[in-house]
Amino acid sequence: MKHNILEIIKKIIHELAERPVIFNLLRRILEFNYRGEKRVIRDEITVYDRVLDLGCGTGELCKEFISKKYVGIDLNDLYIRYAKEKYPDYIFETMDATQLQFSDNSFDTILISGVLHHCNNEVAMSILKEVHRVLTPNGKVIIWEDALTCSKMNIVGRVIQKLDEGEHILDKDGYLNLFHLYFKITKSYNMVSGFCDYHVFILESKSN
Ligand SMILES: C[S@@+](CC[C@H](N)C(=O)[O-])C[C@H]1O[C@@H](n2cnc3c(N)ncnc32)[C@H](O)[C@@H]1O
Predict the structure, then answer these.
(1) Which of 30, 134, 173, 201 is the most buried (most CB within 10 A)?
(2) Whole-angstrom Cα distance, residue 155 to residue 168?
(3) Is the dihedral angle over the CA atoms 79, 34, 124, 52 positive or is it negative?
């Protein structure tokens, strides 16, 4: 019974979050306008890098980058249409990250914000293989994925995690295992953004 109610609430949230405006509103409220994410971008990314925002959703993070140097891609055409309309100076394309339509070595930095915990291991590995291909040899990959809520007081964070659609949340070692075939881990740390906890990973190609 309890399980059924949870599934029904999850389904309702999933349907609401399919609407770009509601998806943005939820993220802005729960993550205090992406405070933690913006801090990591400012700390880790050089503004002149050519950046791929892989699984960019509604494109809310694009404003942190120079428009001419930024490309956002996502599988969800509704999100991409919304992003194109809201940020006409930026490039957005509907694309599957397991089959990136870019040549080898196209980007200095690839940002993967909360995407892999929606993918099973096989899909995540196909994405990482493509990331390795389109990243320049000295490029950087910046990934953050949901982590288990640290603070016992963060009840909202715990509820969000229960309701999260991502069915493949891994612990830190689980993520590290995914990366090691193609990448070296140069840094990893925790990040809190509003009510949400994340693992942050900074990677470099292994072929360097
Ligand atoms: C939780 S949202 C994160 C959106 C955005 N990165 C952010 O931080 O606001 C996960 C996104 O990953 C996208 N996604 C999942 N699998 C994908 C794939 N194979 N190729 C491209 N995008 C994908 C989903 O469509 C969704 O927009």
Answers:
(1) 201
(2) 21
(3) positive
What does the CA dihedral 206, 120, 154, 61 come to, rounded to 10 degrees? 60
* 49 within ligand 1 shell (Cβ under 6 A): no
What is the Cα–Cα distance from 154 to 162, expressed in whole angstroms?
Answer: 13
Instruction: Report the number of distinct structural domains present in the chain.
Output: 1
- CA dihedral sign, ordered 154, 159, 164, 167: positive
Q: Which atom of ligand 1 is nearest to the CA of 127?
A: 19
Rounded Cα gap, residues 2 and 116, in angstroms: 28
Cα(116) to ligand 1 centroid in Å equals 8
Please state the pTM of the whole predicted model.
0.89
Q: What is the pLDDT along the chain (208 residues), one digit of tens a residue?
A: 656 776 777 677 677 778 888 888 887 888 888 889 999 999 999 878 899 999 999 999 999 999 999 999 999 999 999 999 999 999 999 999 999 999 999 999 999 999 999 999 999 999 999 999 999 999 999 999 988 776 667 777 767 666 665 678 888 999 999 999 999 999 999 998 888 889 999 999 997 5
Is the CB of 109 inside a 6 Å radius of any atom of ligand 1? Answer: no
Residue 68 sits in a domain of what CATH number? Answer: 3.40.50.150
Ligand 1 in reach of 72 Cβ (< 6 A): no
